[in-house]
Amino acid sequence: MKLDVDILRYLSKDDFGVLTVVEMGIRNHEIVPSELIDRIASLKHGGTFKALKNFLKHKLLHHDPSKYDGYRLTYLGYDFLAIKTLVNHGVFSAVGRQIEVGKESVLSVQ
């Protein structure tokens, strides 16, 4: 799946908090229960479930209702968490247009 950085622009601090909770829950669970996500994220007025629904729409999470109601991160979700971490550490400042594709790299202009 192609990385769409436009989605990144509209994710809030609370949204990234929910993604981080799912990442933390994966350490102990293969599929993180939705009750656990809601309890740890502790957002008010159903904010956790709104964020989860938004992540499902953009395929950052996968919902697995087979054993119990739970979620797991997709590779795209891990990529968004990594980009957010790099932005917070000042490694990334902006993402620009793609201008050239090489054998092992992609060149972009800002």
**What portion of residues is helical?**
40-55%
Alpha-beta classification: alpha+beta
Shape: elongated
Low-confidence stretches are none
Task: Give the neighbour order of strands across the main sheet.
Answer: 1-3-2
Write the H/E string, N to C: HHEHHEEHEE
Strand content: 15-25%
First-last Cα distance: 23 Å
Could you characterize what this model shows?
The protein is α+β, with helices and mostly antiparallel strands. The chain is built from five helices and five strands, in the order ααβααββαββ. The strands form two sheets. The chain has a three-stranded antiparallel β-sheet with strand order 1-3-2. A two-stranded antiparallel sheet has the order 4-5. A hairpin with a 4-residue loop joins β4 and β5. The longest helix has 14 residues, at 75-88. The two termini are 23 Å apart. The relative contact order is 0.15. The model has no long low-confidence stretch (mean pLDDT 84).
Core attributes:
5 helices; 3-stranded antiparallel sheet; 110 residues; 17% strand; 45% helix; single chain; alpha+beta
How is this fold's topology laid out?
Layout: H1 6-9, H2 13-25, E1 32-33, H3 34-41, H4 47-57, E2 61-64, E3 70-73, H5 75-88, E4 97-101, E5 106-109
Antiparallel strand pairs: 1-3, 2-3, 4-5
Helix pairs in contact: 2-3, 2-5
